[in-house]
């Protein structure tokens, strides 16, 4: 059997497959291409603006963390010399006050009776 024949007795034409391209207006095709290029450039510009803002915010965060690290280094050097920085004292006294306030509110919460007390 011949390879050029297909199932229903039709003969295949070598070299020409698929649909013939429709006659597309060249000016319309160029305009679509230009519009697509404009949109692509706009997307690229937005993407770069977003990335620049992201880099800027990360750089600010890095600067803030470096300042915080420098502060902690100063505190450590002061404590190595036997001095307690006033900021640490304030933190410690603030924590002590918070603990004492929490303990006093724990024992007398209004609205809910204490389970362990026998007030019949």
TrEMBL record:
Composition bias type Basic residues, residue spans: 10-21
Main location: nucleus
Sequence ranges of Basic and acidic residues compositional bias: 22-38
Residues of the BZIP domain: 26-75
Pfam short name (any one): bZIP_2
A Gene Ontology BP annotation from the UniProt entry: cell differentiation
Entries under SUPFAM superfamilies matching the protein: Leucine zipper domain (SSF57959)
Secreted recorded as keyword: no
Keyword Secreted appears in the UniProt entry: no
GO CC annotation: nucleus
Region Disordered, annotated ranges: 1-38, 93-120
Keywords carried by this UniProt record: Activator, Differentiation, DNA-binding, Nucleus, Transcription, Transcription regulation
Function summary: Probable regulator of CREB1 transcriptional activity which is involved in adipose cells differentiation. May also play a regulatory role in the cell cycle.
Subunit record text: Interacts with CREB1; regulates CREB1 phosphorylation, stability and transcriptional activity.
Family from the record: Belongs to the bZIP family. ATF subfamily.
Name this protein carries in UniProt: cAMP-responsive element-binding protein-like 2
Organism: Cavia porcellus
Gene: CREBL2
